[in-house]
Write a structure and sequence with these properties.
Elements: H1 3-9, E1 22-24, E2 27-29, H2 31-39, H3 43-68
């Protein structure tokens, strides 16, 4: 194994220095930093928001089911 080659291939996120998975406009980002860069919020925030939306939708559906009966 050639350590130099491996080192050359490692891309690090410019934000958090983790392993980068995405290159955007010549800058390396890891998944979560890219998501934050792209969406303006973290994956955790996004998931929380999505879960809350789903919960609201379910609540609405439950209400509809109850009134329809
Ligand atoms: Zn990062």
């Amino acid at each position: 194994m050639d350590d130099k080659n491996i080192f050359m291939d490692i891309r690090t996120c410019i934000k958090c220095k983790n392993k980068a998975d995405v290159v955007e406009k010549g800058k390396d980002y890891c998944c979560s930093c890219y998501f934050k860069y792209y969406c303006g919020e973290t994956i955790e925030q996004y998931e929380k928001r999505t879960n809350e939306l789903n919960q609201k939708r379910e609540d609405k559906y439950e209400k509809y089911k109850n009134t329809a009966r």
